Amino acid sequence: MSALFPALVAGSDRPALRLGADTLTYEELAEAAGALAVRIGGAGRVAVWATPTARTAVAVVAALLADVPAIPLNPRTGERELAHILGDSAPSVVLAGAEDVLPAGLAELPRIDVETTVTSFGPVPAAFAFAGGSDASESPALIVYTSGTTGPPKGVVLSSRAIAASLDALEEAWAWTADDVLVHALPLFHVHGLVLGVLGPLRRGGSVRHLGAFSTAGVARELGAGGGTMLFGVPTMYHRIADALADDPALVRALAEARLLVSGSAALPVHDHERITAATGRTVIERYGMTETLMNTSVPLGSHPRPGSVGLPLRGVELRLVEEDGTEMRAYDGESVGEIQVRGPNLFSAYLNRPDATAAAFDGDWFRTGDVAVREPDGYVRIVGRKATDLIKSGGYKIGAGEIENALLDHPAVREAAVTGAPDPDLGERIVAWVVPADAEKPPTAEELADHVAGLLAPHKRPRTVHFLRALPRNDMGKLLKKALPEALHG
Ligand code: MCA
Ligand code: AMP
Question: Does residue 384 form part of some domain?
């Protein structure tokens, strides 16, 4: 058993992170997080107002050091979703910046202002501060909320053991070292941006630069000659990069000079792979993960370009394909389609307060991912779809159709609602709402409905297209026929 962040314990004047205006060395991060760890030690659970700032990194590292579970919150979460998360996870304190204005529900909780420089506390009692943060700990480290097909989001409980196992497997797959400088612009309330993007570099003793918000100009500035060696992004970001390459020689150079370009959270279309390779000579590596499993597979560094493939299982991860009835499939033929199940030290511990959902998610000790794939003769995995049609991946965010339908039904001008995902070149999938207005003469506007969903749930869950119908198509039993929605539009 050793420390989750050895470089933090050692301390040094090497840069650990740069987020916004704040740059922290390992020594400074150890001081700031250590001081905060002392203050939150013994707290039940802490909510972290996860803005894309150094405060979020300090708060999460402090919680890990103090062995206190942290719940990263999307600062744009709407009122209903926030109320659910707070009710479900019952944090005893919220960690936020001094200037952050917290919404109702959170504002009433005891609050600790996160500081990135230690001014107001005395010397850090190192032994206590670093008592937590072991890489073998099974106790809950992070609780990350993720959408399912039905019902409100579930809290995925992740241990330090899972986090360390997954990050160390990536070290091997990507030759990730302390010399790497990661550039990213992902949100810090999900696994991709927080675990891979912040805790990943810290575990390696390397550094991370966060752009604050994604822009191709930011990538061009920070990657390559700017000092960044790696870029992590969702396909939407790579799509926007691919669009910009034709007119941006600085962006081409930045990508060409980077050591590693990684895409994940959703499939990167082959067309975008090809555009990036044609312009820069570089291959984007895809890896496949999930909040519940952290990382499962990756295209190995230095392998031939394999657009459309998520590569091979990472060290320690066992992966199998199963048929509808649960029978394991043996074929490696690039054709036989089955559901991916995985097991290994990278797996989550449980869904918070949901033993039913936890039990349903497993087949023995195998986790059912719900992703459907084939295996090539050389073992490479190609994801071809998802079992649940009611899960939408938009911009790399997983969104359940049911939560949006329920939110829409709460609008007084909506009588019936159905939500589907439609292919979108930028977002991968776009959320489409099919609405029967309460009064056909006075339908609500699409913008009004988008604002309503953004206010209750989150802006990334808002419908981007709204169609108004006279009735939703149903079968004789009254069951909604989502596939028939486009016809109903013209009916
Ligand atoms: C727009 N906005 C609104 C509204 N409309 N706010 C309130 N009400 C409205 N009606 C605001 C937004 O808050 C935002 O503000 C701005 O307008 C644009 O938002 P949005 O439309 O969401 O931007 P986008 O263009 O769609 O964003 C693309 C994106 C984003 C940047 C690529 O989708 C993104 O960050 N995706 C990352 C998802 C991710 O990290 N997934 C990981 C989970 P402002 O501009 O001020 O922000 S998956 C995972 O973790 C697993 C393990 C894995 O495998 O990785
Ligand atoms: P989340 O539950 O938000 O963590 O999202 C996990 C889901 O994202 C997985 O179950 C997959 O459906 C999808 N996903 C992640 N990475 C990839 C990838 N490289 N290619 C295709 N789908 C992916």
Answer: no
